[in-house]
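We modelled the chain as a single entity of 304 amino acids. Its sequence is:
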Amino acid sequence: MKKNVLISGGTGFIGKHLTDLLIANGYFVSILSRNKKQNTADVNYYKWDVTNQSIDEESVLNADYIIHLAGEGIADERWTAKRKAAIVQSREQSIQLIFDVLKKNNKNLDAFVSASGIGIYGAINGSEICTENTSPTNDFLGTTCQKWEFAADCIENLGIRVVKIRTGLVLGKDEGFLKKLAPIFKYRIGSALGSGKQYMPWIHIDDLCNIYLEALNNTTMTGAYNAAITDNTTNSIFSKTLAKIYGYSIWLPNVPAFLIKLALGEMAQILLTGRRVSSEKIEKTGYKFQFDNLENTLRDCLEK
């Protein structure tokens, strides 16, 4: 009988790719969605409403694994006080909903795998390579990720194996970060941002989804894992490589940091800061990245 993987946030960029991968590997997939959708042969849809703290409990009770991707987008809107609260609460409250069902029904899982972010290491520029043991920071990004992971850790208290995937910049075809950025470079008006020296830890969507699959299958995996390539990619290198894909060299000066801050406010730190991260821990599990070269990765995302 097929194992059932319940995905929260399964209709988003990562969730859609992950659903296809899980089905291809013999899993049955269930998806928590704000709107009930038509079930298919391989996917069941269940309704939940995090704001009103309601969930179809059957979704959790039928699950062998849960992959938790749900949460308000970090970069979707300007960081007002209200928006920042929504970002944090969407992560804490969604896990709490699942936790309550698990605890009330004494439900066990083979594993609970939660998204997290390399933002846990903070909005700081530096050349230090951050490992999973690097101390988190107390700025907004760092605090948000800490609360996100703490909520997931509560599920570990139920005797369930918990894995947290600290994700870098996800690169994929026609979606995510590149969907917004590529057109600017395609029309040859792209340039580096701020100093251009800020690091940009990245990962191909296929590698990220395969790491989630590894977290399900590899029972020795527990705790936090960085999901990003360990390299020296800065914003300047990324921008020059992207321009190269489109057959030209950057001719415009860097976009001044003050303009980005003026446009985005505090959220500008997403673009203007960055830290290197180590992928050593995930590689020690035996996982091998399919995409570890930036130019080849960008070509795969943009030329097909």
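As a brief sanity check on the tokenised model: The domain at 4-170+203-228 is CATH 3.40.50.720 (Rossmann fold). The chain has a mean pLDDT of 94.
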